[in-house]
Each structure stands twice: as structure tokens, then as C-alpha cells.
Design goal:
The complex is a heterodimer. Chain A is mainly alpha-helical. In chain A, 65% of the residues lie in helices and 1% in strands. In chain A, helix 2 packs antiparallel against helix 6 (178-201) and helix 16 (448-478) packs antiparallel against helix 17. Chain B has helices at residues 8-32, 41-74, 92-121, 226-238, 248-252; strands at 128-135, 138-143, 147-149, 152-155, 160-166, 171-174, 181-184, 190-194, 200-205, 218-224. Classes of the chains: A mainly alpha, B alpha+beta. Bound molecules: protoporphyrin IX containing FE and copper (II) ion (CU) (2 copies). Chain B: Its EC number is 7.1.1.9.
Chain lengths: 615, 253
Amino acid sequence: MSLLSLGIVRGLIGQLVGTAGGMALTMLIRLMLGLPAWKEEPVWVVGLILGGIGFLIGVGAVSDWFKWMKGIETPLHHGPPADKPAWTRYFGVDYNHKVIGIQYAVTGLVMLIIGGSFAVIFRTELARSGLQFLTANQFNSFLGMHGWAALFGIFISIGGMANYLVPLMLGAEDMAFPRLNAFAYWLNVPAIVMLLGAVYFGWDAGWTVYPPLSTKGPVGFQFLFYAVFFLGMSSILGSLNLLVTIFRMRPPGMSLFRMPIFCWAIVATSLIQLTATQLIGMSFLMLSVERVLGMGFFDPAKGGTPILFQHLFWFYSHPAVYVWVLPGLGIISEILPVFSRKPLFGYRWIALSSVAIALVGFLVWGHHMFVSGYSDYLRVPFMISTMLVAVPTGVKFFSWLGTIWGGKISFPTPMLFVLGAISVFLIGGLSGPILATVPTDLHLHDSYFVVGHFHATIFGGFVFPFFAAIYYWYPKITGRMYDERLGKLHFWIMTPGFWLQSIGQMSVGVMGMRRRIADYDPALGIEPGHILITIAGFAIAFSILLMIYNLFHSADVGELAGANPWRSRSPEWQIPSPVPEHSYASPITVVGEPYDYGLAGSTYIRMAPASAGHD
Amino acid sequence: MPKSSTDKRHFIIVAALIAISTVVLDWLLRTVLPLPVQASLEAMTVDWLIGLHLLLISFLFSLVVVFMLYGLFVFRKRDGDEEDGEHFHGHTTLEIAWTVIPLLLVLVFGFIAMNALADITRSESDEVTVQVTGFQWAWRFDYPEGFSSQELVLPVNRRVRLEMTATDVIHSFWVPEFRVKQDLVPGMTTTLRFTPVEVGEYKVRCAELCGLSHWSMLAPVRVVEEAEYRQWLQEKTAGLDPALVQGESASTE
Ligand code: HEM
Ligand SMILES: [Cu+2]
Ligand SMILES: [Cu+2]
């Protein structure tokens, strides 16, 4: 087997060729126009775009569509490639949603680890006042990179959970559009390559890249813009696919209010992604064009305004923060009943609260701009709309309490992470209204308090639930159990570590620590706080390494899990582990409620006798 | 310990624990979130509001966490018990209650905050006005008396109005001891008002990432007695062309 038979290798070569070709083409055109051949920005921009396309062609994500254009039929291929080892299917275009789900999840984890590593580096720098081993320039680049790498990790990991779980939970064989699904996944890979290029060339305006800072400065910005553009395209296509799958491919009997609750979270998330992602694509494109062609959207000297960018950016990026947490909240609601052995309390309220959060989320972007200099009369409406988000969020918390109350609760690792998630998300959520209140935000805005706030919401709303999901579905994916002792150790290091980190960040913020500074003034009395935050950060990083070890190690030596180690009622647990190529041997019918734990004799789904199944 | 999940005794115990936890937590939060010196009138309003928030946070955190921990403990699975828990799906009255009460709370808080905001941004006739310019990576303060300064010197107990702009990228004016913050945006003028009430030395710290030396974009701020302020103005204007000097009346009008 040669290296070239791996799709990803061909893709990377394609990206290289595309980039070089695009650059050469631009230089040629410039020469023909009588301009000097080399000009950094335009040459790179065309190279980046063609490079991304080159990757997609090289990897084979568009091959079937090309064949269709030529009138060639392309039946869906099932199973591992015939002439290659089975593992190779994970490194090339494969249409099975379970393979794509794993591809997403592993890529997402890798990006989270890359993002986390940057954080560990500059966190160490911040432990003591004074610049020790980073320059201010490196610090700023690493900071922005940490942000975007982590965000890539989140978006891609969410794609992993959704792709793997949604079709299984619906008893469907696959997603509605398998080829589009693969295409959406592979868009992420050239995007990651561009993002890494962005660090190499440098960019120094944080993840929010406000102009005019971002319309000056190194060409790394362009790498970032197109990386995000490709990632955003993936979000849009992925969410479209998920919505169609959920609305069109449910089995008989599964009304919307009988879906596993995670599917509701994905509906809400996908609605945001499908409708808001365009805004960040557009705003980054405008930045790119301003840099390349000198247009003045955000340049006051040319009649533009820097604040326009902030409106466009946050109109997407605020709803985006709900994209990061709604799936995680869905995971909490999904797992809690299983280990409480009780129905999910207030199913409909939880389901609709996700949709409510998604909708209200579109009306609150201005809370990031209270001190931006926009018109004063905008402050109060944005304050009230933002506080309203607390209402549906509260409904979720109280319903989770109702789920626990009166149960028979057990505490394996996934349940611990779910409970940890609730406690951490509570810290994040409760530190929100104080930021939404304009007078108090005048002090807290752009301070480390905000850093504490959003890390708590993101860890509570995404990272902890994602880890819960990994442990919970690990036996379904691999057929083996993870090591329970290591899992618990992971939890008991990470959770207190995280509380400490959040509270520490909020504390130094209140005392006057600003966001995004390479060094700070020890006169503020914040040095002990920073040392504590750094230690907590290392503890968290170490605990995550434990998880990685656990996942690899247990895949070989873990106990065999059996079909349903958690005694769950959800469809995916009624079929063998690992899930066979065609997940369900026969179509399923829904005959009851999803979470009727404790109701004697009730079942959720019924499978037709195996003989009635397809091929 | 009562077994049934609807036994009133559970709720009495939990309520007592929540009350205790709220008090303890509120004290803890005030300890780990120490606010800087209150050097402006606004600081008092803001801190009062922060205190209100911390009390509410302590209560809500206790409400959820105490309920959760108590529930986890009381309703934990015993060894060998393979039964399921009680079977109930929800409670509409409860759901409505915990939708409507937070909604009211939001409106009340919104109202309080709105009034506080109006209070801290109010203008007065007798304001000291200074033009502030931010640029990479320093501050300049232009006084109506016709001179520029590297430090911001202000008289105590007088309302200050800063008229601010930036020449290159966005910066943000923040003196943590004053509690208020405002961006400086190229191409437009933004306004920030506050009333210093504590004589002392502080620093403006740029709060918006503005490039390489953002971290060190500081400038000294001195709040001084009125008499000292007049003297400082006089020293600053002493060497100036009298035609440019509009005199003290301009700054006090
Ligand atoms: C009760 C719900 C929430 C409220 C009221 C709230 C409020 C706020 C406010 C007012 C800010 C702006 C603070 C400032 O810059 O001065 C903010 C920042 C932020 N919030 Fe939230 N938030 C909530 C939940 C969330 C959730 C669920 C997430 C998702 C991960 C999140 C992520 C963020 C992020 C990333 C920022 C910082 C953005 C930046 O400036 O870089 N928040 N939040
Ligand atoms: Cu927001
Ligand atoms: Cu700055």
C-alpha cells in the first residue's frame, strides 16, 4: 500500500499544487498588467482559495459529482475499501456517517489539543509578571491562535457528535446526503492547514480581529480569513444535512417530541449555523477585500466605520456561542436520565428552551459592544434582551434537578462529567447577567472577568459534556469499556482544577487585569492569582492527557462492553457494539416515550424481525 | 432520612441548607473578588450593583448546587438495587413558575440597572473637559487651556467629561479605580463621564487589544485638590502664547 492511496495525502498534495498554481497565476496576471509580479497579499489570497479547492479535488471529495456531470453512475460504496487495510478508510473520503463522525471527533480533539497547547505556553508566561520567554509579538499571535484553534476544535467536535449520533438515534442508516456529509468534513482539513499557516505568518488581533488593527499587519490575517471561510462553509452544509436528516428520516412513530433530546439540541444548533454563519464569512471577506483592494468598509478615512465590523462579527459570533453549548446541554439532558433511572423532567420544556435560546440569541449581539461607542440608546435594549437568555437557560437547570430528584443515581465517569458540566456551566451562566448589566459591564468589559465567564460557559457547555459523551459512547464505538479508575481520576483532577481556574480568572479581572496583555502590573496585586490559575491550567492539561491515554489503551485491553452496558433505552444501544456497517439490521418503529425509565413494561422502540431487513 | 421524593421534610432541609450556603457563598465571593479602591462616584453605584449581583449569584448557585448534591446523596443507588427510580415526567406548574419568576427578576434587574446607568452617565453644567487621544501605544491629553499633557490631572469632586478619539486603531480608556470604560475609535468622538472623589495616583490602562505594546499602554492619572489643580494649570499655561490660552473660564463654564 503506498502513501498516495491515502486520500488525505493526495488532498494535501492537491492543496500544495493549488496554492502554488494560484500564486503563479496571480503573478502572471500582474506581469501581463505591467505590475511587479510579487505582491504579498493578492498572490497569497488567490493561492489560498485555489489551494483549498485543490485539496477537495485531491482528496476525492468531489469525484462523484464530477462523474455525475459526465453521466457516470456512482453507487454508494459500503464497508472498508476492498484492497486496503480497514483503518485507511478514516484517512480518505468515506460516506458512512459513523466513519465521518469519528473523523470529525478525532480531528476536533486534535485541534482542541493544539489550541490547549498554545494556552499552556502563554499561561506559563503569565504566571509571573515580566516578560520571561515570549516576545509581545509571539504572545499576541499565540493568543489569537489559541482562540481560533480551540474554536475549530469545538465546531469540528460538535460535527463529530452530531454525525455519529443523530442517524443512530433516528434509527436511520445514514445522513440524508452522504456525499455532502463527506464534503463538509473535508472542507475542515484545508481550513486547518491555512490556520496553521496563519500562526506561521503571524496575526496579532485576537480571535475577534477588529479592524483597523486587522486591516494592517502581517499576511497571516488572510490565512485566518480563508481558514474561517472554509470552516464556515462546512458548518452551513453540515447543518443543512442534519436538519434534513432530522426532519425527513425519522422512523414511523417518532414524532418530534419523541426524539432523543440530543436531536432537539442539534435542530436548534443547526438553525443558527445555517442562518448566521454567512455573516462571519461576509465580514471576514470584507476585511480581506479591504486589505487586498483597498476598499474602505471599515476605514474612516474612506467613509467607513470600524464599528460596522463589530456589528457584523457579533451578529454571527454571539449566536455562535450558543452553537458551542447547545449540543453539550443536549448531551447532559441525554445522559442524566440514564444514570438517574428516571424520565427526563419536562422534556418539552427542555426541547423548546433550546429553540428559545437559539432565537433570543439573535437579538443580543450588542452586549459585546456596550463600550464600543455605538449609540447610547442601544445599550438598554441589548441589556434586557441579553438577560432574557437566562430564562430558558434556567429552565434547563431546574429541569435537570427535577430529573435527578427521586432517582436511583449511579456515578460512572460519564455521569460525573455530566454533573461537573452542570456545576461549571452554572458558574459561566451566573457570571453572564453581571456582564449584561451595562453599569457593571463598564468595569468588567475586556477584563479577565470576561475570560473567566466564557471559559466557564464553554467548558461547562461543551468540554465537560463532550468528555462525558466520549466516555459514554466509547463502548458503543469500540466495543470495549474504558478504564473506570482512570476516568474518575481524570474527573477529580479536572473539575476542581477548572473551578479554581475560573474563579481565579474572575478574581484578577475584578482587580484590574485586562484581557489579552502579554504582561501585567504586579502593583495590582494579581500575581498570586496568576500563579494559581497557571497551576490549575497545568492540572487540567495533565488530566486530559490521562483521558487520551485511557482511550488508546482501553481500545486494546478494555473489557468487552456488550450491546448495552448502561441499560439505556435509546435505539443505538439496542444494536451490537461496535455498531455494524449497516447500523440497524431491520427498520425500527417507535412505540413509546424515549425516557420512560421506571415505567414497567414500556419500551421505546421495536425492531422488525431481522428477516424483514434490507440487503 | 425520608425516602419518598415528595416528602416535605426534604424540602425543609434543603431550604435551610440553601440559606446557610447563600450567606457563606456571598461572603466568599466578596473575599475572592476584591474590588479596587472606590475612587469615583460611579464606583459606588457600580459596586453596589455588583454586590446585588453577587448576592443573587450566591443564592442561585446555592439553589442549584445544594438541591443537586442533596438529591445525589439521598437518591443514590444502593448496592445491588437494580430497580429504576420513580416515574414522573414533569410538573407544568413548576415549569411555569421557574419561567415566570426569573422573567420578573430580569425585568426588575433591568429597571434598576437602567436607572443606575442614567445616573452614572448624566451630564452636569460644570464639567471639566479634556480631549483624549489614543495612539499606538500612548495617550495624549489636550486641555482646553491650550496645552497637551502626558498625564491626566483632574480636580477632585468635579464632574469630568472626556472627549476621546484614536488616530490609528481602537483603544479603550479604563481606570479600574473609576470603574468605567469607553473605547476610543478612529474617525469618531466618544464621551466618558465620571467624578473622581479620592485624591491619589492611578493609571489609565488600555483595555482593547491594539497591537504589539497594548500591554504597556498606560498613562498616569492624578486626582488632586482643586487648588493644586489650578496651580498645575497655571504652570502648564505659563509658557504658552497668551493668545492661545482661553483662561480658566473655559474649563469651568
Ligand atoms: C446567561 C447566559 C449568558 C449571558 C447573560 C452572557 C453575557 C455575556 C456578555 C454580556 C458578554 C460580553 C462581556 C464583555 O465583553 O464585556 C459575554 C461575553 C462572552 N460570552 Fe457570554 N453570556 C451568556 C452565556 C454564554 C454562553 C452560553 C457562551 C458560550 C460559550 C458564552 C460565551 C461568551 C464568550 C466567548 C464571550 C467573550 C467574547 C469576546 O469578547 O471575546 N456566553 N457574555
Ligand atoms: Cu454574546
Ligand atoms: Cu490597547
